[in-house]
Each structure stands twice: as structure tokens, then as C-alpha cells.
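@here heads up, posting the sequence + SMILES for the pyridoxal-5'-phosphate run so it's all in one place. Ping me if the SMILES looks off, I pulled it from an old spreadsheet.
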Amino acid sequence: MKFSKRSSLLSDSPTLAIAAKAKQLKMEGVDIISFSAGQPDFHTPDSVKAAGIEAIENNETGYTASSGKPNLRRLVAEWMSHEVGVDYVSNQIIVSTGAKFALVVSILAAVDPGDEVIFAAPYWVSYTEMVKLAGGKPKVIRTGKADGFKLSPEALEAAIGPKTKMLMINSPNNPTGAVYTRAELEALAEVLNKYPDIWILSDEIYSRLIFDGKKHVSIASISPEIAGRTIVVNGVSKAFAMTGWRIGWAAGPVELISRAGKIQSHSTSCPCSISQYAAERALQIDDSFIEDWVNQYSGRRDLFIRLLEDIPGIEPFVPEGAFYLFCNIGGWIGKTAPDGKIVESCSDAAEYLLDEARVAAVPGGAFGMEGHMRFSFACSTETIERGVMRIAKAVDKLR
Ligand SMILES: Cc1ncc(COP(=O)(O)O)c(C=O)c1O
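bot reply: prediction finished. Complex C-alpha cells:
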């Protein structure tokens, strides 16, 4: 039997692969410390869980409108107007099965085969595959620690060509935690003003998780012209600790959202009805608990960085948002493990940590950036302390 070319283009999600191996070892009884999680370790708020239970008990278990319940779309429009700083109405919103599918339908609605989609590396693992799924070509711009892992206007302008259809931007960023300032977004918008046919897809799923009193800025808020061609993606997964409920959304121009809606209606029909009720509740409760979570995340970030200081060969980048520590592990490359194997890449290093330290982390190659590793600090301070101690011991054995 022959398989489609499309399916051959896609690679397995490397973050999921490491997490799966760690999970398997855990199931076998091995004491694994996982820094690979891409989700909060907090629980969905009780009142939100109750809304899901009520939805089941009230038999709200049938299909809903394909782009989401009208009431949820209205609530999302209100929430996004506040979050983004642009006024949205219901027909500018599509509610999808997680922010991930909101990204997919947005790309499918805008990108044709052969079109180029620009984004910066390191990038979230699925961006390349989503673009390829649409037949598009990812045009990846490498960034580095010196530029704060952020796209510069010069690099953006140099990457734009006749086939450029879309720019994807992710702030706060997974895996670096980099957060774009208004001035930086204005500089990017100035370049984009010269190219009015380029779509902007802004993934703001971590918008609520920003540290040190800094505020989230959306590129859509830079000017009405930019807002008119920007699709902003967000959802309840990260801020409300609801990753498994699978509710995310996109906000953007009516025509684009309506086309994304058609794609969604013929692929997943609608997001889960029960989860939509829960999401409605999430958007209406007092959400001051998020501030407490953010404080806990930033405390863990500081602890993690402090503890890593004593380990040679690893240099963390200080994240301003999300819950990941992106570290340069160049100092480990080329070293020899006790079994004689040479650590030749960050994947080897991740494998070594899993085998030797029983610590799971994600190699930078997954994010388009070799020589790095991502550690999630969506875990307890005790886990961080124990995990870093194990890493130190394993690194000490490298020669
Ligand atoms: C940058 C980024 N965008 C989107 C998503 C997807 O979010 P969801 O779980 O709502 O599909 C993730 C999840 O890890 C992410 O890190």
C-alpha cells in the first residue's frame, strides 16, 4: 500500500516522543524526574470542573455550532478584546480543539501550496509541520541569545520574498520564554507595513504567564492596519490549567475566520461540547489565582537558574514568560559518557540525562536549535531541587 506524500513529510513530535519514553520508564517503576511537560502542574479550578460536570448532567452532550457555542464565542470576543487590545465581535472568533487546531485551521485558511511562512527559531515544535501540512514552506530565521531569541526587523525584511504569505510570531515564546516589547513589535510592524499582503499569525497562548510585572503586548494592537490581517491565537490550556479539555481559539478578520470555520466543520465538526461549557465558566470566574500561579512559576524559574549555576557546560536563558528554561548545553557536547559514548548532539545529551540521571528534558533540535535543551519548570520546587542534583551528578561523570 502507498501512503500520501503529505503524511511522509511530517515527523513525529519530538517533545511527545521524549515524554512518552519517560512515561514508559515511569510505568516500569523507574523513578523519573520529568522536566519535559508542556503543561501546568496546577489543577483546573474547581468551579470550572463543576461546569463540565453540570454540562454532562444537563445532557449538553450533543454537537454544538461548528465554530463554537454562540455564547462562548461572545465571551471569547470580550476576553480577547481585553487581552489583545483590539475590539472583537463573535463572528471574528473561532473556538477550536485547543490552540493547536486553531493554528492549523488558520494556516489552512491562508496558506497555499508553495507559499512561504516565516518564523523565528527556536520555534514551537509543531509550526514546521503545520505549515507543511498546508503545503507551505517554513522559512525559518535563526535567532540567538544575543538578540534575546527574538526576530529583528532587519532579519524579517531580509527573509521576505515574493512567495511570503505569512509571518508567525509567538510571544511569550515556547521554548525560550522570550517576550516581545511594544517597541520591538512596532519595529516589526514597520517592516510589515511595506508588505500589506502578508498575514500575521500571532500565537499568544502564554499571554497570561509573564513574570516580573511585565505586560503582554499583542502585535495586533500596534495599528488597525496590522490588526486587519492578524489572527491571534489563545485558549484556556495554559492560563487556566486546562490542557486536556482541548479548548483554544483564533480571533481575526471575519472572512478568514469564516473560511477556517468551514475547514473545521468538515474535519472535527466542533470542539467538545462539555469543554465549551467549562471554558465559558473559566472566562467568567475571578481569575486572580493566575497571578498566584505566575508568582510560583517565577519563583521556580529563579530557583532553577540559581541551582544550574554550579553545573559546568550549561547556560540558561532567563525567560520572561511561559514556564520553560531554554539552556545552551554546548559545554556538554564532545564529552564522553562513562559507557564510552560521545555526546555528539543535544539529543544525545537528552538521552544521556534520561539514562544516567533519570531526568527527562527536551533537546533543542526539536525547536530548530541544536546545542540547547528545554527544561519545563511547571513542577514543584522539590522536583527542581532533586532533578538538578541528579543532573549535576551525571554531568560530573562526563569526561
Ligand atoms: C507555543 C504553543 N502554541 C500552542 C500550543 C497548543 O496549545 P493547546 O494545548 O491549547 O492546543 C502550545 C502547547 O504546548 C504551545 O506551546
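MO: The chain is about 40% helix and 15% strand.
MO: One more: The first strand starts at residue 33 and ends at 34.
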